[in-house]
């Protein structure tokens, strides 16, 4: 699952500053006023996920070794979760992180204390680039119900390459007060006060340019092993280190030949046989791996044995090279010598989980006899007639209390089995989509259409169940870049996005079924951007980035003509009443453009608005011609009632990121307005029932979900209901409780 930023490096080592926060997850909470004047204390809202069923990369799964039914999961941009065995659901643990802490929704690692089952630790931080904030460690004494926080002076990379490697955070097996944290660019950190403060620890390996550093920390008895991912392939360069007392670390002797050019991905210790299993790949993953192996170390005498189930490099059934690496590994706490490992990046033959019951001498592929049931999450069929076993298989766990309960993560879900044959998503409650588009139709079966990164468009006929039709197909999109409904003909919807078999489609039944455009401009393949349909669905306008002109179609995408006067890179906005009118905001010049001839030509209207604002949104109020609202991150909210000729600043709003409309309050003549922005306090979610004269905050401090600036929409049929796009926690919807 990708966030809205790419990843690289930059961090500084040092000691930590400590700040404490308390967070109580739950569905209900009273909103607090962030200021006085324009912002009032809010009503009690109930917040829930719009159910999709995962849709993101689960990077780690950890069963608690001494408490039956207790497990945790981490994700690359959607925070952390605790498994509730009574309800068969994941409980989100980091929804309290707000706008300023969006970077902390990427979980680099998690750790539990084997001797204190209620203790939980999270190492948070999505990116190591200069524009990202430093990482933080959250520590809990009640399984994540409440937290204390320590801000680090280094950066972590929970959404960078290598995010699917092992846990970089570990409670020392000799002392529960001592924790170790492996970083990507700043070596090893140590805490002796249960994570309250951190300092650099001596470590023999120096960070390199690959940005992997410590790839995992694992306890083997009273010894701690650390995987090191920054070796440069030099012969004899070690990838595995250990410490017995914690004061000094040493390279493990006799490391297997051929692993110097590989990255140690994960490790698991079989306490019965005293053997440490390590998976390797020639890249950290999840992408880019083409070679790998599995080795085990007998810790009593230092003997290494290669136990690779299948060596990469053979010929696939389609004649291509069967290239892949190895990712996850887990051992059976109840059965000596029983271990599972996963392949990763094996596209030709499809990834699998191998299982051995004799210490790796022989292996069985669990995929070969797997029966997959995705009836609860049909999108996992990807527009075909059957699901895939998965890809990006790096997270892998084996229940210490049930030898046949295996769980593995993919790029979109968690699969689990209780008999090693029948598999189904074990994903309830865990929603990780990065939502880009939201449309709430005024009529029809579905109250919501969503467009996301990686999973395309979904038609939500129910908010509490994954869409029965799965993801929109014909064609299937990996990522949705545009979604638009004809205001005067809501059965007509268009979408755009990244797809292998076309980049645009239209629907005549409200988004239930789709047909691809008969043709598309050449720019669509490489730069599909926002798309809009006019009020009666007779005209389409499609944008293709700042380097390309816009294009127009009047025949459902069968033919297209260039619109030279359309501002390059702008998002087209249709007037909801007049089919002849379109609008667009040119952020490069701070100018609003308008068309009165159905998009054939555009002319400049209001100018002098904030230029260069990367987070802006132009929105047309429903049922009104020429009533436009312009949200500007750095310059608040502006409104035009003359089709963009002039704009007036809305003084009640200090910062605006995204705005939408819903059903009017009883007795009100104007739609309810929903805003993600700052009125007088910090960024929050607000509603106004009086045309933005006053605002009410409707979310609370436990329901913030990091960055929520992509989209917001009220429901035109249900007063008070609002849909919020998050960057990693799917679509959230709130209603007055």
| Cα shape | globular
> Are there runs of 5+ residues with pLDDT below 50, and where?
1-37
> What is the CATH class designation of the largest domain?
Mainly Beta
**How does the major sheet shape up?**
5 strands, antiparallel
List keywords for this structure.
Methylamine Dehydrogenase, Chain H; 5-stranded antiparallel sheet; mainly beta; globular
Can you offer a commentary on this structure?
The protein is mainly β and 737 residues long. The chain folds into two domains: 31-42 and 53-425, YVTN repeat-like/Quinoprotein amine dehydrogenase (Methylamine Dehydrogenase, Chain H, 7 Propeller), CATH 2.130.10.10; 435-736, 7 Propeller (Methylamine Dehydrogenase, Chain H), CATH 2.130.10.10. The chain has no helices and 61 strands. The chain has a five-stranded antiparallel sheet, with no helix packed on it. A five-stranded antiparallel sheet has the order 2-4-61-60-59, with no helix packed on it. The chain is globular, with a radius of gyration of 26 Å. The two termini are 32 Å apart.
Task: Chart the SSEs and their pairings.
Elements: E1 17-19, E2 28-30, E3 39-40, E4 44-49, E5 58-63, E6 71-75, E7 80-84, E8 89-92, E9 107-113, E10 116-124, E11 136-140, E12 148-151, E13 169-171, E14 179-182, E15 188-191, E16 199-201, E17 214-220, E18 223-228, E19 240-243, E20 250-251, E21 263-270, E22 275-281, E23 292-298, E24 303-306, E25 314-315, E26 321-322, E27 325-331, E28 339-344, E29 353-356, E30 364-365, E31 371-372, E32 396-398, E33 406-409, E34 414-417, E35 422-425, E36 435-439, E37 448-452, E38 456-460, E39 479-486, E40 489-498, E41 504-507, E42 515-516, E43 531-533, E44 540-542, E45 550-553, E46 561-563, E47 573-574, E48 582-586, E49 591-595, E50 603-604, E51 616-620, E52 628-632, E53 636-640, E54 648-650, E55 655-662, E56 672-678, E57 684-688, E58 695-697, E59 712-714, E60 722-725, E61 731-736
Parallel strand pairs: 3-58, 31-35
Antiparallel strand pairs: 1-12, 2-4, 4-61, 5-6, 6-7, 7-8, 9-10, 10-11, 11-12, 13-14, 14-15, 15-16, 17-18, 18-19, 19-20, 21-22, 22-23, 23-24, 25-26, 27-28, 28-29, 29-30, 32-33, 33-34, 34-35, 36-37, 37-38, 39-40, 40-41, 41-42, 43-44, 44-45, 45-46, 47-48, 48-49, 49-50, 51-52, 52-53, 53-54, 55-56, ...
